[in-house]
Amino acid sequence: MSTSSYTPAPPLQGSARMWGTIALSAATFMNVLDSSIANVSLPSIAGDLGVSPNQGTWVITSFGVANAIALPLTGWLSQRFGQVRLFTTSVLLFVLSSWMCGLAPSMGSLIAMRALQGFVAGPMMPLAQALLLSSYPPALAGLAMALWAMTTLVAPVMGPVLGGWITDHMHWGWIFFINIPVGFLAAFITWTIYHKRETPTRKLPIDSTGLALLVVSVSALQIMLDKGKELDWFHSVEVTSLAVVALIGFAFLIAWELTDDHPVIDLRLLKVRNFWAGTVAMAVAYSLFMGNLVLLPLWLQQFMGYTSTQAGMLMAPVGLFAILLSPWVGKNISRFDPRSLTSFAFMVFALVLWMRSRFNTLADFDTIMIPTVIQGIALAFFFIPLTSIILGGLPHEKIPSASGLSSFARIVGGSFGTSIAITVWQDRAALHHANLSELINHGSSATQSALAGFQQAGMDPTQALLQINRMVDQQSFMMAANDVFFGSSMIFILLIPLVWLARPIKAGAGAAADAAAGAH
């Protein structure tokens, strides 16, 4: 099909538009769900496969990194094969990799399948956005994006609840098997409705050198972050080697991408102040958000005695305000300065994390839930305004590249943030454990009183000491979680001036639609 003679298909009508929206939303829901459904299941998966829960975080980070690497390829692949064909194939491959994840016999094979799942999922979300916008007339673009926002906000809410319930009542493999019927149905409906609306294809050269450098450098950095704690960081030859590979890889990647005619990542966009300021703010903010999103259920299950279901129920309310407020933000974005809305979101994030930093081991269910409910307000004011800053003022033909690069930075930031949060948590816990242990000795009246109490309850001296050590562990990891929460809160405050480095933009309806389309 010639691109010069191509005329975009008219918007869909009636039931075709309804079913098309449902199919695209279901595929998106499935994709976003898989980025959060494993969070509360990590202790069970790790226990079943014989590794520590902290090693289990690879299940999340491998998906995120592979997903991020695939994102910049979406533009090239959709021009090579057509948007509809690529989207349908991506969904079917996602179904296949989900099935293989559920059957994985070891942590190594599960991580490999999760990486495959993340990679084939890369094109799904940008293409779902493109196909959804093509289904609606321009006047209804805001409605299309409000529906989109609802889908992408409901999925992270459902993920922990569904993941927790499945883990407590069935084999953890079912958190992946549930994708199979949803994926098949979404692929069938999408192909039936959209195959006659296929976009033109053309053969473009692929930047294979840039892609190889991207894979090597991002993978080396992520493995370094994941294995650093286990191997004692730079005292290990392996960690040092990975750091050198990542550093050299990124240096060559930058040099190559700035000189290639068809770069896999268009780094020239970084010359635009709004783009780089917004993208850095997005990547750092999302890394803090994801790091704390993984840390909270791990702490609840390992040290507060919560089941997977209970931890999931505590994480679920994050979407309540987000679902209610996102359509309003999308509709009214043009009336406000996006920098003000983003600053408000960062202040709410900072407040939420500060509230969490005040938790103690006696915190009840309601106390832990309140900040989670408030966090939904921050989410509603975070994605769409910040993306309108990133994309605002760019020429229309640059929007896909800019959206892809900012999404890449956000997802890589989320994966790195997860690894960094867990590592800092463990390091701070070890420090607090050492400090608390110094206070426990035979000369301490509190120690003697506690030992006497445990022995009266029928424990022998060894059991009593083990019980005290368990209490010290619980306090150490609580204090360490507070440190991570407080540090994250301060970083959110420091991000606010970065947002104001961007030039003021007044987002019109078209810019708002573009912003919303790139928001997730």
Q: What series of H and E elements makes up the topology?
A: HHHHHHHHHHHHHHHHHHHHHH
The amount of helix comes to over 70%
Q: What portion of the residues fall into strands of 2 or more residues? A: under 5%
- Main β-sheet description: none
Any idea of the CATH topology of the largest domain? Growth Hormone, Chain: A
Please explain how this structure is put together.
The protein is an all-alpha fold. The chain folds into four domains: 12-206, Growth Hormone, Chain: A, CATH 1.20.1250; 207-263; 270-422 and 485-520, MFS general substrate transporter like domains (Growth Hormone, Chain: A, Up-down Bundle); 431-475, no CATH class. The chain contains 22 helices and no strands. It has helices spanning 14-36, 42-48, 58-70, 74-81, 83-103, 107-121, 124-135, 141-169, 174-177, 179-194, 208-227, 237-259, 273-303, 308-315, 318-332, 338-356, 365-380, 383-391, 399-438, 445-456, 461-499, 509-518. α4 (74-81) crosses α5, α5 packs across α7 and α8 (141-169) runs parallel beside α22 (509-518). The longest helix is centred in the C-terminal third of the chain and has 40 residues, at 399-438. The chain is globular and about 85 Å long. It starts with 13 loop residues before the first helix and ends with a helix.
Task: Give the secondary structure arrangement, pairings included.
Elements: H1 14-36, H2 42-48, H3 58-70, H4 74-81, H5 83-103, H6 107-121, H7 124-135, H8 141-169, H9 174-177, H10 179-194, H11 208-227, H12 237-259, H13 273-303, H14 308-315, H15 318-332, H16 338-356, H17 365-380, H18 383-391, H19 399-438, H20 445-456, H21 461-499, H22 509-518
